[in-house]
Amino acid sequence: MRAEPISSRAGARSADPYRDLDVIDERAPRANQALVGVGALVGVVLGWPLLWALVALQLLLGLTLGRRFCLACLAYFELLQPRLGEGPLEDARPPRLANRIGFVFLTAAALAWWAGLETIGTVLAAIVAGLALLAATTGFCAGCELYRLGARLRGVSARHHDRLDPGDLAGIDGAARTVVQFTHPLCSECRDWERRLAEAGDSTVTVDVRERPDLARKYGIAIVPTVVAVGPDGEVLERLAP
User: Fold this and answer.
1) Of 8, 9, 168, 232, which has the maximum CB count within 10 A?
2) For the chain, what is the largest distance between any 2 Cα atoms, rounded to a whole number of angstroms?
3) Residue 92 to residue 86: CA distance in whole angstroms
4) CA gap 125, 14 in Å, rounded
5) Which residues form the domain of 104?
6) Angle at the Cα of 144 from the Cα atoms of 131 and 72, rounded to 5 degrees
7) pTM for this prediction
8) Within a domain: 12
9) How many CA atoms lie within 13 A of 46 on its CB side?
10) Would you say 210 and 164 are in contact if contact means Cβ atoms under 8 Å apart?
11) For residues 35 and 55, what is the distance between their CA atoms, to the nearest angstrom?
């Protein structure tokens, strides 16, 4: 369930887009996907593998040097966000994986074309164009969903961690059922979960992953919010999110 937009006056930011890299305004990746999708599509229609290579290079620069070197990010954060206001903030890792996948596919597309495998190159670039434009127009990000699937497989679950150490989580106190939320102070969906849990009257322990990165590493928290219900001995009874 996605949180409702944070009400804020235009230009106000709770997160610095160039410093608070754990989170990102959810609309920024869509702006980036629009640029990637259009670039890949134009390259497919006109047969310009150089354009695929340039878009891949732009993705690589953003991934390695930061958002200040991502043209779509700069356009969004400097031109659009000050006018629209800050949107909901989400975990930055899923869209980062989507960008890595886009880089790999577009690089492979350009190399395949130049190696004489034009059909393979066109198909790879067309896949990127289709998925990127789908993400830009609908918000459905295939790469992000792959990340979340991976997070489920390696996060707090019966398969990997069937118990949280009560010594790590002051507040369990022998309750029959306690909800443990791994959160980030700037995450919109985390705040939404906090409100829902408070309204439900659940006994809750909150772990700020920015303040306790050791616990995030220990329990393999790959995405926030991660919310689980545990028993009095820390046994994981139920996964609530993601």
Assistant:
1) 168
2) 66
3) 15
4) 36
5) 23-150
6) 65
7) 0.76
8) no
9) 11
10) no
11) 8
